[in-house]
Each structure stands twice: as C-alpha cells, then as structure tokens.
Amino acid sequence: MAKSKKPSAAKSSGSEEGLQPVVNSLPRILFTFLIAGAAILYRLQPLWRENPNAMVLAMWNSTVGTNGMVQKVPCPENQKVEYSGCEAATCGRYILDRLVTNEEAEKLIAIAEKGMSLGGGSGGATILDLHSGALSVGTKFADVRELAKKSGIKELFSYEDLKLYRSVKNRIQVEIEKKWKIGPGKLKLTKPTFFSRMTDRRPSTVHDEYWHVHTDTEQYDRFHYTSLLYLNTYHTDFKGGRFMFDSPGNNNTVHPKAGRVSIFTSGTENPHHVERVTSGTRYAITIPFTCDPEYAIADPQMEV
Ligand SMILES: O=C(O)CCC(=O)C(=O)O
Ligand SMILES: [Fe+2]
Predict the structure, then answer these.
(1) What pLDDT, in 10s, does the model give residues 17-53?
(2) Could you report the predicted ipTM of this complex, rounded to two decimals?
(3) 282 flagged as catalytic
(4) Same domain for 14 and 160?
C-alpha cells in the first residue's frame, strides 16, 4: 500500500510543481487581462458615451425621404428678432440627402485635399477656410494662396472647383429660404465657411479639439443658420465623428453621410458637438448663413 502511495505522492508534488509557474505568473496574467480590458473599453467608449435615449435623426446606412427630415425645437425664450422675414420664427433641424450627389461629394474632397496637401494640422483637425484662405499648418494657420504661390502653383482651385462650391452653397441656401419662408435677397453667406478634415490624432492645439459642445451664435460672429455638408460617411469611411445635438430633451444624433446636408438654426436651442473620430478621416464643409447684411461675404474667389 505504502509502495503504491509513493508514486501518487510523487505525482501530487509534481503537479504542485507544475502549478507553481502558473501561480507565479498569475499577477502578470491578471495585469495583461486588465490592460486588454481597458483597451477594449476605450475602443467601445463612443458607444456608451452616446445617450442611449438619443434618437438618431439620420443613419449612415439609410436615406432620408425627398422632403427631408425635420425636427422642430423650441426657439430660445429670450430670442429677439432683428431681421424679421429672415430670422427663424420656428427653430429646428432639417436634414437633406438628395441635394448633393456622391460624385459631387468626392470632387469636394479632392478640392479640400488639393489645398490641405500644402499644409495640414499636426493635431486631429485641419481647416481650410475658402474665404480667407486660412489653412491649418502644423499648430498654426497660413494663407493657402501664399503657400500655393511659393510652390509655383498657378491655379490652386479651378473655375470648376469654385463653381461646384457655389452650386452646392446656392442649393442649400434655396432650401433654407424655402423651409423658413425667407424672401429673396435676405439670406447671405457668412464667414467662416470652411472644409474640415478630422482624424483621431492627438490634439496639438485647442483648434484640434473639435469635440467640445458649443453654440454657433456664441462661437462665431453672426450665424443665423448653420449648414453642414458631409463629404464622406460614418462607419464606412471613419468611426466616431457622429454629430450630436446636446439640447436637453432634444439631444439627437446625425450620422455623417456623403452628400448629406444638415441645416439647423444657429442659436442656443442647438448646442452641439462632434464626437471624437476613432479611426479613418472625416470630411465636411461648414456653410453658414446670416440675415445681417454687415456680415455677408461674397462667394469665395481663391485666385492664387
Ligand atoms: O462638422 C460638423 O459636423 C460640425 C462642425 C461644427 O460644429 C462647426 O463648424 O461649428
Ligand atoms: Fe458648430
């Protein structure tokens, strides 16, 4: 019996020895799991950060109907109207998917890249302002026209390029005039009007932190209506980067989609932010309108 027990005793001490390396490396295994878990949670962050009750106004994989998607939100109680017949009597959001084609959106990305290839922000955001010529370069801004001249480029943006920008701007303007019943000649393009390119790069300056909640009437000079033209598509071309309205009770999301136009009244009824891009590159154009003739700008010329 004693004999027969020996091998089993030897066996058990052998398996304890076998377990020893596992026990020793347990802290390392736990640590690895912890790091992997944290990494997974970090990647999933955009999913839980969005309020689960927030309704998606327009999904990346669907198209809103011909009449567009309208969402009314109450105008601010203290809103004083200086330009009646132009400023919104009804505040809200208006999304259109059939105003700009995919081909036009692609051409507009090519135009943005033509300018941005001469510079580019070092953080996650690059801006190309069509009116002033301001282009993000490293942590600063430079005049894209000067940069083009220095590079010996005679014509940075062609007549066709600017014609396309003008054409989409005019189409959006007509839609705003129709929806808000604005008489001819009252609504004007205002500044800044710019292409934006957003990535997941770490921010270098505050200009790169595009994800902060803001209200356009506070952030910019004289917006009455903000329009955003998306040039590529959430989920397929980039992850993160969804547009979110942050008004209590009306905190809705818009998925960027190539050719999608999102229009909204620019006041405190529509605070918003762009969710951080987590992968890929997001392209859009901000095209704002004003009722204040003093803040009107001409269509971008961009002669180099
Ligand atoms: O690109 C977007 O979706 C929003 C940009 C924006 O909020 C702005 O230009 O003020
Ligand atoms: Fe904004």
Answers:
(1) 566 776 778 778 787 878 777 766 555 554 445 454 5
(2) 0.99
(3) yes
(4) no
